[in-house]
Design brief:
The protein has about 350 residues and is an all-alpha fold. It is built from 15 helices and no strands. About 45% of the residues are buried. The C terminus is likely disordered.
C-alpha cells in the first residue's frame, strides 16, 4: 500500500466521522431559521440541547416482542415525548449511532483481515442489545426493523428490510476502503454489507454510485474528473440532474427546492454530489455548508466527508476537527490484504 493511498483511506474514514459529528447537534432541523436561532452558524463541534423544535421522536415508536429485540434500553422513556433532541446525550465531536456502528465494522475488518459477515453481525447484535453500549437516543428505522425481525427468530443475514435512507451508505465506506485495490471485490463486499440492513434497489443504485466514485478517488483521480466522467457516462440514474447548471444557484435553493433536505437517497445523494462538485477544493466549506442546510445533514455529511477525504486526504480537514472528534478516526490496519474469510 502506497503512502498516498494510506493518506486517502485515512481521509475517507476521518471525513465520514467529521461530517457526521459536525452536523450532529443540528441533525434533522428542517426549519433553517430555527437552526440559526438555536446554534448560529455551525462551523465547529457543538453539544446538542433540548428542545429540538423539529423533532418527530414523539411520533416514532418501537416495541419488541421479547428480550432479543431490546435495543432502546434506558432511552425508551424519551420516545413519545415532544421536543426531545435525537442525540441529546452526545458530546461535542461525538458521532451518531450510525457512525459508531461503522467503527464496529472497521474493528471486524481489521480483526478478520477482510469482510466477515457473521463476525460483523455478532458485533452489531451484541452492541445494540447491550445496555449503555452507546447513549444515542434515536435509533433509525433500519435498526428497528432489523431487530423486530431478529426478535421473531429471523436469521440475522435476512433481517434487513427494504430501505431508502442515506444513513445506510456510511457503512459501505470502510468496506470499499479496505478493498480499495480490488475494485470488483470492493463492489461485491460493499453491496453485501449494505444488504444486511439496507436492502433494495434504491439503496443498491445509490451505493454503486458512491462505490464507483470512491474507488476512482482512491486510485488517485481528481474528484472533478471523476464526477465529470460520471456525468458524461450517465451510467447511474442519480447522475441525471443538471449539476453544472445548478452551481450558480444559492445552496439553500438547490438543497431545499431542487433536492429535498430529507434522508431519502433519491434527493440526499444528488445533494451530496452537488456539494462535492461545488466545493471540491474546500472540504471545510463543503461540510459547513452541508451542516447549516439542515435536514439529514448528518447522513449527507458522512458521505460527503468520506468523498472529500478520499479525494484530498486527511490533512485537508482542519486540525481542530481531527483533534476534536470524541474518538480518533478509525484506521484500517492493512487494507491491501483483501483476504476475506466469507
Amino acid at each position: 500500500m502506497t503512502n498516498e493511498l494510506t493518506y486517502k483511506l485515512n481521509g475517507a474514514l476521518a471525513g465520514l466521522c467529521i461530517g457526521d459529528a459536525l452536523a450532529m447537534p443540528v441533525h434533522w432541523y428542517y426549519n433553517r431559521q430555527s437552526l440559526e436561532n438555536d446554534y448560529g452558524l455551525v462551523s465547529d463541534y457543538l453539544k446538542p440541547f433540548n428542545p429540538h423544535p423539529d423533532s418527530i421522536l414523539w411520533r416514532s415508536s418501537y416495541k419488541t416482542t421479547n428480550a432479543r429485540g431490546e435495543i432502546l434500553h434506558d432511552q425508551a422513556r424519551y420516545w413519545g415525548q415532544k421536543g426531545i433532541h435525537y442525540h441529546q446525550f452526545l458530546e461535542a465531536g461525538e458521532n451518531t449511532l450510525n457512525i459508531k456502528i461503522c467503527r464496529l465494522l472497521v474493528d471486524s475488518l481489521n480483526q478478520n483481515q477482510g469482510h466477515h459477515v457473521d463476525d460483523y453481525l455478532n458485533k452489531y447484535i451484541r452492541f445494540m442489545t447491550t445496555p449503555n453500549s452507546h447513549h444515542d437516543t434515536y435509533i433509525e428505522e433500519c435498526h428497528r426493523n432489523f431487530f423486530a425481525n431478529y426478535a421473531n427468530g429471523v436469521e440475522p443475514r435476512k433481517c434487513g428490510t427494504i430501505e431508502k435512507h442515506i444513513g445506510g451508505l456510511a457503512g459501505i465506506v470502510p468496506v470499499v476502503a479496505y478493498y480499495a485495490d480490488e475494485p470488483i471485490k470492493a463492489r461485491e463486499k460493499a453491496l453485501a454489507h449494505l444488504a444486511l440492513t439496507h436492502p433494495g434497489k434504491k439503496m443498491e443504485t445509490a451505493a454503486l454510485l458512491i462505490i464507483d466514485i470512491l474507488l476512482k478517488l482512491f486510485a488517485g483521480l481528481p474528484i472533478l474528473n471523476v464526477i465529470a466522467e460520471k456525468l458524461e457516462l450517465q451510467d447511474n440514474p442519480l447522475m441525471g440532474h443538471p449539476y453544472k447548471k445548478l452551481l450558480d444557484q444559492p445552496d439553500h435553493i438547490v438543497i431545499g427546492q431542487r433536492f429535498s433536505t430529507a434522508c431519502y437517497v433519491e434527493d440526499a445523494v444528488p445533494a451530496v454530489i452537488y456539494l462535492a462538485l461545488k466545493y471540491h477544493h474546500d472540504p471545510e466549506k463543503a461540510l459547513v455548508v452541508n451542516t447549516n442546510l439542515g435536514g439529514d445533514n448528518a447522513g449527507r455529511g458522512a458521505v460527503l466527508g468520506a468523498l472529500l477525504g478520499a479525494a484530498h486526504g486527511i490533512k485537508k480537514f482542519p486540525a481542530r476537527w481531527i483533534s476534536g472528534l470524541k474518538e480518533p478516526p478509525p484506521e484500517l490496519l492493512d487494507p491491501t490484504i483483501g483476504m476475506s474469510s466469507d
